[in-house]
Amino acid sequence: MLLSLSRGRGSWLCAGCRPFPVAGYVGVPAAGTVESAVRPAPGVAGPYRNPVKGLQDPGRLVSSGYNRDTAKPTGRCVDNRTWGACVAELTRLLDTWRCDLDSWAIPAHISAAVAESPWVLARPVFARRADRLSSAPSGPSYERAWAALDPPGSILDVGAGAGAACLPLLSRGTALTVVDRDAGMLALVAERAAVLDVAAQCVHGSWPEAAAQVPAADLVTCHHVLYNVPDLAPFVSALTARARRVVITEMTAEHPLVTLNGLWLKFHGLRRPESPTAADLLQILAAMGLQPGHQRWRRPGAVDYASFEELTDVTRRRLCLPPERAAEVADALAEAGADPSHPGELASPGREVVTIWWQGGAD
Predict the structure, then answer these.
(1) Per-residue pLDDT tens over the stretch 128-158
(2) pTM for this structure?
(3) Domain 113-270+295-359 has what CATH class?
């Protein structure tokens, strides 16, 4: 997507998008001062617990931004740019992320032509994936989370789905809290946790609004959620504020719906976006001072759909096509490389995934 950017009131605004409320997040006064931009306002969860210690290491941002003895701002951030330059860069990145996500909106004339919502939450697919990963956990996200729970500790899973991120960790978990907007998903997690003799605390709601309802946890996980988060800074800050040890998130290297772009062009003549990406998220996290680590890896192929017909139906709904066009969608999936005898997400075998982690900020 080609963005037209213009600057105004301390923020970079992309054409057609609402401005990010910098003052509401970073505590920048309306007059536009920017010194406090990488620190939260008093009482606001953010990347810093206090201006001297910082979130991770005083040597990261604070050594350049603050005098260690007086705790007074020097007016510069970690790479010796002014606070204003740091804030402008962070704001630009956040606005670009939001604009990129806004560009995935389906044109009204297409969505209005069908009765079914294209934003499919196929609970049986989520449940099968959670069961598969619980029975044979693997991959860098699991391995890093497992290591973070030594010694055993509490787990908070945000956007838990059916529990694919948290359930494999329960033998090292001392408590489990799960947050999701879908009550049906929470029921799936609670049911599976109960089989393992764990009583999950289920919080029905959106993040970060639900953050006040959950206790801090040693480990916070948030897998395959962030591409659904336009207002990234408060979301990430709330994750950080609830993690005592580490936040671990997993996402596809590219937006997960990119694999359907060819089908959108085929059926609707519509060119779909390709951004944002995991690389964009890493830039934002770094600009927030979180010092993220990451590992790129390839997900093994798996069968999460009960049948090729189920995969076809989910794909048809995502493409805003009526049921009578299911046969066309099935043919198009096969042409695009989907295996009717091994029905997984289109292009999922060998698809690149990124595990991202950063230090928590809870006491």
Answers:
(1) 889 999 999 999 999 999 999 999 999 999 9
(2) 0.79
(3) alpha beta
